[in-house]
Amino acid sequence: MPEGHTIRHCAQEHARLLVGQHLGVTSPQGRFPDAALVDGGLLVGTDAWGKHLFHEYEGERFVHVHLGIYGTFTTHPLPPPQPRPTTRMRIVGDEVAIDLVGPNTCELVDTAGRDAVFARLGPDPLRTDADPDRAWRALQRRRIPIGQALLDQTVIAGVGNVYRAEALWTHRISPLRPSNELTREEFDTLWMELTELLHKGVREQRISTRNVYKADDCPECDTPIRRWDLAGRWAYACPSCQPR
DNA sequence: TGGGCATGCGCAA
DNA sequence: TGCGCCTGCCCAT
Fold it and tell me: How many domains does chain A have?
C-alpha cells in the first residue's frame, strides 16, 4: 500500500535490520540479474525520497526500488520460507531476510543514477531537507487542477491518491481548483496537513483517516461523495464542503 | 474459475 | 489521453 509513508517506513526498518551487514542478495524470479553484483556487499545506508527507496552498498552502489501499485516488502525471521516464484529480490542479513515482490522498479544504479532520480522529484514532506517553496513555485507556474498537481511527483514527492483526497477534504479545497489560484495560506496549510498525515502514516504503518476516500457520504454534511476520473486517477470530494 | 480492481507510472499516439 | 505492466486478492459466477 505504497504512498510515501510506506517507503519511509521501509527505509527505516531496513536500516535498523540490515545496515552494517554483508547481505546475501539474490533474485529468485530472475528479473533482477544485477543482484549478483551486490551479493555479499556491505549495506551502508538506506534512503527514501517520495515513493523511491535506495539501499546503498559499499562502493557507491544503490539498489533503487519503486513499489508501484502492487509492490511489497516482507520481512522474515531466519531461516526464511521458500521464496515465491515472483520474488524479485531476496536480501538475507544476520537475523532476517527481506523479500521484494511486484515492484515497478528494482535496479542497480550508481551515485549519478540516484541523483538523477532525486533531480526529477519535488520536495518530500517527510524529508527534513524538504523545501516547500519549490512546490509552491511549481504550483504557481502551472494551471492544472490542484488534485492533479498533488499526484505529480515532480511537484510534491510521496503523496498518493488517499492523502490527496483526505488533505483536500480537510481544508475544503476542491480538487478542481486551478493550482495557481491557491493562496499562499492555503498552500501552507495543505503542506502542513500532508506532512502530518505522512508522519502519522509512518508511525502507524497505515493510512488511518478515511473521510472521503472511497466513502459514500461526507462525514461532515452527509452529502454523497462524488467520484470522478481526474487525469486518469479517481478523485473523491464532497461537492458541498469542497465547492469549485 | 475468472474478471475486476488497487494507495503508480511511463510511454505511445 | 489511453494503455500496458508488475501481483494478489476479492467477489461474482
Answer: 2
Residue A97's CB is within 10 A of a number of other CB atoms, namely 21
CATH number of the domain to which A94 belongs: 3.20.190.10
- Which of A155, A56, A156, A71 is closest to A113 using CA atoms? A56
Cβ A160 to strand B below 7 Å: yes
Please confirm, yes or no, whether A51 is among the known catalytic residues: yes
The pLDDT of A50-64, averaged and rounded, is 97
* A 37-56: CB within 7 Å of strand B: 50-51
**Same-domain pairing of A69 and A168:** no
Q: What Å value separates CA A216 and C1' C12?
A: 22
Q: Which residue is nearest to nucleotide C9 (CA to C1')?
A: A70
pLDDT band per the 50, 70, 90 thresholds, residue A205: confident
| pTM of the complete model | 0.95
Tell whether A242 is covered by a domain: no
Q: Give pLDDT, residue A1.
A: 60
Domain limits for position A165: 132-237
3-class secondary structure per residue, A194-214: HHHHHHHHHHHCCCCCCCCCC
- What confidence category does residue A2 fall into, taking pLDDT thresholds of 50, 70 and 90? confident
| Nearest nucleotide (CA of A163 to C1') | B7
